[in-house]
């Protein structure tokens, strides 16, 4: 299966689909959770996501060291990362945008090279209005580039809308096909 990127808007069904994809694998599953419970509402979201996971899965709570979490996962296991958008927000709060983008791209390469399957979840935040603040615009831009790096390394990229998945075509393949 290789690397599968699952993207879409908030509450679109991305995580549920990623869990179903990972559960369909006949391998041990390692779940890398990047969320941090900064308030009661987020703690409830995290608890809901935990309850949706099969009981035999190993959970790694890692809000920042994504590359280390990927590298520490046994090569043949299925790795599910949920989610890149929270990881990018955590990393951006902890450092410079250039460093976040570089770390996200390096993590994408590492994930794509794994022997076992990897499923990564991320939000698509670039389809809405332009954020009003410099930090919001920086986050949108950084996450957009991180998402593009993960999609470039993915064997398959899916856009989830209203609980339905659309397969995204590789842009280079589209250009080649239309250039004939």
Rg, please? 16 Å
In total, how many domains does the architecture comprise? 1
Order of helices and strands: EHEHEHEHHEHEEH
Going by CATH, what is the homologous superfamily?
Answer: P-loop containing nucleotide triphosphate hydrolases
CATH class: Alpha Beta
Major beta sheet summary: 7 strands, mixed
Report the β-strand fraction as a percent range.
15-25%
Q: How is the secondary structure organized here?
A:
Layout: E1 3-8, H1 14-23, E2 29-33, H2 40-52, E3 58-61, H3 66-72, E4 78-82, H4 84-94, H5 97-112, E5 118-123, H6 134-153, E6 156-161, E7 164-168, H7 171-178
Notes on the protein architecture:
This protein has one domain (3-178): 3-Layer(aba) Sandwich (Rossmann fold), CATH 3.40.50.300. It has 7 helices and 7 strands; from the N terminus they run E-H-E-H-E-H-E-H-H-E-H-E-E-H. Strands 3-2-4-5-1-6-7 form a 7-stranded mixed sheet, sandwiched between helices. The protein is globular. A hairpin with a 2-residue loop joins strand 6 and strand 7 (164-168). The chain is of the alpha/beta class. Helices cover 47% and strands 21% of the residues.
Give a short summary of the structure.
Helix content is 47%, strand content 21%.
Features:
180 residues; alpha/beta; Rossmann fold; 7-stranded mixed beta sheet; 7 helices; 7 strands; 21% strand
């Amino acid at each position: 299966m290789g690397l599968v990127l699952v993207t879409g808007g908030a509450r679109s069904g991305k995580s549920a689909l990623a869990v179903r994809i990972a559960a369909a694998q006949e391998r041990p599953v390692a779940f890398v959770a990047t969320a941090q419970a900064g308030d009661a509402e987020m703690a409830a979201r995290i608890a809901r996501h935990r309850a949706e996971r099969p009981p035999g899965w190993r959970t790694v709570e890692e809000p920042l060291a994504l590359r280390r979490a990927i590298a520490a996962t046994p090569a043949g296991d299925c790795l599910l990362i949920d989610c890149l958008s929270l990881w990018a927000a955590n990393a951006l709060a902890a450092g410079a945008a250039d460093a976040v983008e570089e770390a996200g791209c390096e993590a994408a390469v590492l994930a794509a090279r794994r022997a076992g399957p990897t499923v990564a979840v991320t939000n698509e935040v670039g389809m809405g209005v332009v954020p009003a603040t410099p930090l919001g615009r920086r986050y949108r831009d950084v996450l957009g580039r991180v998402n593009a790096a993960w999609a470039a390394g993915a064997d398959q990229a899916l856009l989830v809308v209203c609980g339905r998945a659309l397969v995204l075509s590789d842009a280079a393949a589209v250009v080649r096909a239309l250039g004939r």
